[in-house]
């Protein structure tokens, strides 16, 4: 009887990629894959091994991983799974404590070894959307971030291996390719002599991407965002006019304490240059509120800046104090109530910005990629929306094909989503 396995992949797109590599290994070892939702649907379903890829980045993510392990252990108690295999970032950080606490877990592994070579993967996302992990680890050492401690220093995948992977995904009819890493703008810095830059790599990726329509940049770092890269994004039609550019803060004293290695004026100059060279570009950013020692005045500076710059897309995090990071020792740490108030403030001002921005689309025509149908309504995204983290476009048509592009006339707009026909 062929053994069956399933997987729960928590955390970020990079974790998803690793989960697909692990799934491919289990299939190679003769296991049959069952999607977790399908497995859960029928109480009678059982499988030999359930895998959990954990996230250990910040407290909320850690809590979610631990809750998921507990749920899986109750499935084991009900004999719906025989073996529980837990791996990933949370295990990399707290293996000893976890092994002591969860004695019924059968196998523990930290993060999977990053291979600079082409990876076979079992796709967990719809076939036409994919992620290309070009590097792992990070050299920036932001003072609040534990990732370099979990994933180690920057390790770039070799260019020829990346292009081999793109060619395969291109043949597999992938329509949208999201370029990921911890900081993709540092790709190649560890590959020694030669022109190893993200700008050059992107040009070569576009060169072999015949069927792929959209190539999207996720997880860039403003410190390493070069003029060449701006020109490549501006000049290549396949590259989405969408840039994920986490700034984390804007006050110079806080940026220094965060070890972001960039100043307010440099961030502003970069944004102005990007917007000048790439008309209608959509900028996504991430900010942290309540970083240790952040004063009310410095927080107001951040709010004023966000109202002036008007990022089209924004994610906000309350600072999460993490052991094994430099910021852990900063004093004073900000009280949760203040962090929450600042978080709510940023999210409410961003809601207005996003809503005003979306209103501009009414009456225009947008190229929309149809991804799914829910409750009889077709749902898609424009190049200005990354999967899962940004808005969607509801389409009023009755007959559309999933996995296809359509030019949709935008007839209405909500804060984050659009309506088209
Ligand atoms: S660039 Fe990102 S992954 Fe790297 S240390 Fe900073 S926050 Fe962490």
Care to give the gist of this entry?
This protein has 421 residues and is of the alpha/beta class. It has helices spanning 13-28, 36-41, 59-77, 89-101, 147-151, 159-171, 198-208, 227-235, 252-257, 264-277, 296-309, 336-359; strands at residues 4-9, 32-33, 47-54, 81-88, 107-109, 129-133, 135-136, 155-156, 176-180, 214-217, 239-244, 282-289, 313-318, 365-374, 377-381, 393-395, 405-413, 418-420.
Q: What distinguishing features does this structure have?
A:
single chain; 421 residues; alpha/beta; Rossmann fold; pyruvate-formate lyase- activating enzyme; OB fold (Dihydrolipoamide Acetyltransferase, E2P); 3 domains; six-stranded parallel β-sheet; five-stranded parallel β-sheet; 12 helices; globular; binds iron/sulfur cluster
């Amino acid at each position: 009887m062929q053994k069956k396995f399933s997987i729960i992949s928590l955390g970020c797109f990079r974790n998803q990629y690793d989960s697909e590599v692990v799934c491919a290994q289990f299939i190679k070892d003769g296991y049959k894959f069952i999607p977790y939702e399908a497995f859960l649907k029928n109480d009678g379903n059982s499988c030999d091994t359930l895998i959990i890829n954990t996230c250990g980045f910040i407290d909320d993510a850690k809590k979610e991983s631990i809750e998921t392990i507990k749920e899986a252990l109750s499935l084991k108690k009900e004999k719906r799974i025989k073996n529980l295999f837990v791996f990933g970032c949370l295990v990399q950080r707290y293996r000893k404590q976890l092994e002591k606490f969860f004695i019924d877990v059968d196998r523990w592994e930290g993060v999977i070894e990053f291979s600079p070579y082409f990876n076979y993967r079992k796709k967990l996302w719809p076939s036409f959307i994919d992620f290309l992990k070009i590097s792992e680890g990070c050299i920036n050492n932001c003072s609040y971030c534990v990732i370099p401690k979990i994933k180690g220093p920057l390790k770039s995948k070799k260019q020829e291996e990346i292009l081999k992977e793109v060619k395969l995904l291109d043949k597999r009819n992938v329509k949208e390719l999201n370029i990921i890493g911890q900081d993709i703008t540092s790709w190649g810095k560890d590959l020694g002599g030669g022109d190893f830059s993200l700008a050059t790599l992107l040009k070569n990726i576009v060169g072999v991407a015949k069927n792929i329509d959209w190539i999207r940049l996720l997880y860039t770092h403003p410190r390493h965002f070069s003029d060449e890269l701006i020109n490549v994004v501006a000049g290549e039609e396949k590259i989405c006019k969408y840039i994920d550019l986490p700034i984390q803060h804007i006050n110079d004293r806080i940026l220094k304490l965060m070890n972001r290695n960039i100043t307010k004026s440099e961030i502003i100059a970069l944004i102005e240059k990007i917007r000048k060279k790439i008309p209608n570009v959509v900028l996504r950013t991430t900010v942290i509120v309540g970083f240790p020692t952040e004063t009310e005045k410095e927080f107001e500076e951040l709010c004023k800046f966000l109202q002036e710059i008007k990022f089209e897309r924004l994610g906000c995090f309350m600072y999460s104090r993490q052991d094994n990071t430099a910021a852990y020792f900063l004093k004073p740490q900000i009280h949760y109530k203040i962090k929450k108030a600042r978080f709510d403030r940023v999210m409410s001002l961003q809601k207005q910005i996003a809503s005003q921005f979306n209103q501009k689309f009414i009456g225009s025509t947008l190229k929309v990629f149809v991804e799914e149908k829910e409750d009889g309504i077709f749902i898609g995204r424009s190049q200005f929306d990354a999967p899962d983290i940004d808005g969607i476009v509801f389409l009023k048509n009755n007959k559309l094909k999933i996995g296809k592009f359509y030019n949709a006339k935008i007839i209405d707009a909500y804060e984050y989503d659009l309506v088209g026909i």
